[in-house]
Write a structure and sequence with these properties.
about 525 residues; alpha+beta; 8-stranded mixed barrel; 6-stranded antiparallel β-sheet; binds ligand C2E; binds magnesium ion
Length: about 525
């Protein structure tokens, strides 16, 4: 291992003697096998000290303020390589170069960099610039303006080593990176442990939301690559596919491989600006939190077998009730709360949303548990809309209404009606209810079925006199009964021949009063008069 002094003493001559060479580590699309480009990594093969790792000399050169010299040297080699590819008609794949914190702090660095590119006539679309998260933290304003300058010139900017610092998410909010590079070494036990896996998939998910392609680097095993693919990260750099290789070898690879490009891994509907949606002070968040009803954002995998709740607003929390917090709700796995039928209904609705791309509604019963209320059955009406799609998942916007009490009232009513119906059948009776204030009559099921009456008769008893159910010669007598009932008569009864066949029925009324003694309703019954 070389020390600081040896590096500083040897550096100048090393550049002159071209002891530095540029290696390329290819990057692939794990789903298609296509090559999507490479990262340029510098190597120092010193006749005096042998092979020196960049992990040793890059930080030292940064400290000495010499790294811009090296990086411009590397950039020159990369442009030279790309120019040769262009001239020889080779397949073109973009190359990323590393940029240090010190490069940014060096005032004319970007101008010098771009002058080199222009000298070779290489288009900026073939070059990505990588900046590490830690470099981005220092002096945010300088970084923001450097990235703006790179963008104005047409370069794509990648955030290198995402996850290595403590404020990765904050940086994403402030700085417009175009690609995220996720280094597996910074997510300890990322794959294989539940926690690590969740962190990784959340990061990929968030990046998808921000429409950022994600490259995972440091991928060494097939398991890692397959896991990454399963969470929607297809782009891979690592020993699994290839170590960094010399230009001559990379050139061979370029001739034999199909070349692909990097694209964002989720298409979000245009009306949503995902970046602003996750920003707590944006107008989108304001609307989501305060102006829409009870709403949630969920992510569903492509075979609809798993659902994650990503975000809910306060109204959603209140609508579900049961003293649940936003966090409680987000940790719920929706399918686990749905009973057999409801689960099928919900899944079928999701499938329909995906196939029709239109809003769909469903009502489902859920078993929701909370510390204070135990487990309760809650009926939820959901309206579901598609807002984004990726290869592995879909994002959906869900509005809910808790219709439990509505449903229970409805169920109680149905149950009561059924009991009533059974009782009426048993008693061989015709029954009805007369509302005094409105002169409305509601007949029982048997009346409806056997006498063909509608469920509600207004201006009672006139329509039934007209229809002949009450014979004309009894009409005035019956009208008089009703008048007396309207005036508060407690009960009345008598035999009336009903229908055109004049079948004798024993008709009886009992009146119901309110608390101050006004007549409210009268209950009528009719039983067939059987000759003894
Ligand atoms: P980096 O930019 O994050 O580069 C990725 C490093 O991970 C490279 O190390 C690469 O060889 C290594 N790597 C790639 N795949 C795997 C894998 O599957 N497993 C493991 N364990 N490692 C893998 P390298 O080449 O030693 O470079 C180390 C760091 O030095 C780079 O990290 C970068 O920050 C810096 N560096 C390299 N070249 C340059 C350069 O030209 N300019 C500047 N400023 N920094 C450079
Ligand atoms: Mg890098
Ligand atoms: Mg890296």
């Amino acid at each position: 291992m070389v020390n600081f002094r040896q590096i500083s003493e040897s550096f100048e001559t090393a550049v002159e003697n071209r002891e530095f060479s540029v290696y390329f580590q290819p990057q692939f699309n794990h789903s298609t096998g296509a090559l999507i480009g490479a990262e340029a990594l510098v190597r120092w093969i010193s006749p005096k000290h042998g092979f020196i790792s960049p992990a040793d000399f890059v930080p030292a050169l940064e400290e000495m303020g010499l790294i811009p010299v090296l990086d411009l040297y590397v950039f020159d080699c990369v442009c030279d390589f790309l120019k040769k590819c262009i001239d020889s008609g080779k397949a073109l794949a973009r190359i990323s170069v590393n940029m240090s914190r010190n490069d940014i702090l060096c005032e004319d660095y970007i101008d010098r960099l771009d002058a080199i590119r222009q000298k070779y006539g290489v288009p900026t679309r073939l070059i990505h610039v990588e900046l590490t998260e830690t470099a981005a933290v220092s002096g945010a304003n300088v970084v923001v303006s450097a990235i703006k300058k790179l963008h104005d010139l047409g370069y794509t900017v990648e955030m290198d080593d995402f996850g290595s610092g403590y404020s990765s998410l904050n940086i994403l909010k402030d700085i417009e990176f175009d690609v995220l590079k996720l280094d597996l070494k910074f997510i300890e036990g990322a794959i294989g442990s539940e926690r690590g896996g969740t962190i990784l998939s959340s990061v990929v998910r968030m990046a998808k939301w921000l429409k950022l392609p994600v490259i995972a680097e440091g991928v060494e095993t097939v398991e890692q690559a397959d896991f990454l693919k399963s969470v929607g990260c297809d782009y891979i750099q690592g020993f699994l596919y290839s170590k960094p290789i010399p230009a001559t070898e990379y050139e061979k690879l370029l001739s034999g491989k199909s070349i692909g490009t990097m694209v964002p891994q989720m298409n979000i509907d245009q009306f949503i600006d995902a970046g602003r949606f996750w920003n707590p002070t944006s107008i989108e968040t304001l609307i989501f939190s305060n102006f829409v009803g009870a709403a949630a954002i969920i992510e569903v995998n492509n075979d609809f077998s798993s659902i994650d709740i990503l975000r809910v607003n306060q109204k959603y929390v209140r609508e579900l009730g049961m003293n649940l917090s936003e966090r409680d709700i987000i940790s719920i796995k929706p399918y686990d709360t749905l009973d057999g039928d409801s689960k099928e209904i919900y899944k079928a609705t999701l499938e329909k949303v995906a196939s029709t791309r239109e809003e769909q509604e469903c009502e489902t019963w859920r078993n929701i548990s909370s510390d204070c209320c135990g487990t309760e059955k809650v009926c939820v009406r959901s309206s579901i809309q598609l807002i984004g799609e990726s290869k592995v998942s879909r994002l959906l916007y869900v509005m809910i209404r808790n219709i439990t009490s509505e449903k229970q009232t409805q169920q109680d009513f149905v149950r009561r009606e059924e009991n009533f119906k059974a009782a009426v059948e048993q008693a061989n009776m015709f029954l009805w209810e007369y509302t005094i204030a409105t002169k409305e009559m509601r007949p029982c099921f048997r009346c409806q079925r056997e006498l063909g009456l509608p469920p509600l008769i207004r201006n009672y008893p006139e329509p039934l006199i007209e229809s002949g159910l009450f014979p004309a010669d009894y009409a005035d007598m019956y009208r008089d009964w009703m008048r007396q009932i309207d005036n508060g008569l407690k009960s009345i009864e008598g035999v009336i021949p009903l229908t055109a066949s004049r079948i004798p029925f024993h008709v009886r009324y009992t009146t119901e009063y309110d608390e101050i003694g006004r007549p409210v309703k009268a209950y009528g019954s009719a039983t067939l008069v059987v000759d003894k």
